[in-house]
Amino acid sequence: MLAVAFAQLDALLPEAVTRAELPRHLYWIEYWLNRDEPDNCRADAASICHYDLPTIERSFEAWAEGRDRYDPELVEKLRPLLEERNLDSAIRKAFVILKERMVDVFGLSPDLDGSELVNTVFGKKGSISGEIPEAEREALRNLLDGLYGTFRNPASHRDIRPTWWQAEATLSTVNWALKHIEAYRRESKASEVAARPSADPEGPTPRRE
Questions:
Q1: Measured between alpha carbons, how far is 62 from 66 in angstroms, rounded to an integer?
Q2: Other CB atoms within 10 Å distance of the CB of residue 34
Q3: pLDDT of residue 66
Q4: Whole-angstrom Cα distance, residue 13 to residue 10?
Q5: pLDDT in tens, 46-66
Q6: How many angstroms separate the CA atoms of 84 and 4, rounded?
Q7: What is the model's pLDDT at position 205?
Q8: Cα–Cα distance between 46 and 155 in angstroms, integer?
Q9: Distance separating alpha carbons of residues 177 and 146, to the nearest angstrom
Q10: Considering only CA atoms, which of 113, 104, 110, 70 is closest in space to residue 90?
Q11: Could you give the CA distance from residue 161 to residue 166 in angstroms, rounded to a whole number?
């Protein structure tokens, strides 16, 4: 029973989250219980309660937070879903955030979504056409169009139960797209500021009487 319980926990946890000494302690608990010597595994049970589980919890929280690596809005809105292991809801929410970000950054209609939205931004005549190298534009269009088709559409139209590795791959790719879009926003603002005419550093020429 202990091996089954750990296998279920192990399948739910992302690979980056430590398992601490939980497998070893569970092994010895099962070992001594099978020999009907429960007193010999009391220390292992105590270690699980006081060390392993708190360590795993802290590691999971650090993984879920990841504010230096992940988009802040993505972290804020997905963290409760990930903590409750609502992976399908987390994937759907991530795509809502991605859609709203593209609509906001590129000033588009909120009615756009999916491939239509991607093509409006990254298509040959899209918002970003001419702003970045053509090969990069085409690659981004293909990536985001595939992202919607591969990850978002199945989650929207079917009752799926994604694993942690599937959710992590999806959310990491959405996060990458959000980071890229934010980088474009910053670069665009910097270009606008640089293009503005600067004031004469010496000020206006004094009027002669």
A1: 6
A2: 8
A3: 59
A4: 5
A5: 999 999 999 998 988 887 665
A6: 20
A7: 52
A8: 41
A9: 12
A10: 70
A11: 10
Tokens of 67: 């504010």
The single residue listed with the structure tokens 């220390």 is 43
Q: In this structure, what is the dihedral angle of CA atoms 145, 148, 150, 154, given to the nearest 10 degrees? A: -150
Beta strand segments in the chain, E: none
User: Could you identify the residue written with the tokens 């209609």?
Assistant: 109
Closest CA to 26 of 8, 12, 47, 50: 47
Helix (H) or strand (E) segment spanning residue 10: helix 2-12
Task: Count CB atoms within 10 A of the CB of residue 44.
Answer: 20
Compute the distance between CA of residue 198 and CA of residue 97 in angstroms, rounded to an integer: 37
> Which of the residues in the chain have pLDDT under 70?
64-68, 153-159, 193-209
What backbone torsions phi and psi does residue 132 show, to the nearest 5 degrees?
A: -130, 165
Q: Which pair of structure tokens corresponds to residue 126?
A: 């899209």
Per-residue pLDDT at 35: 94
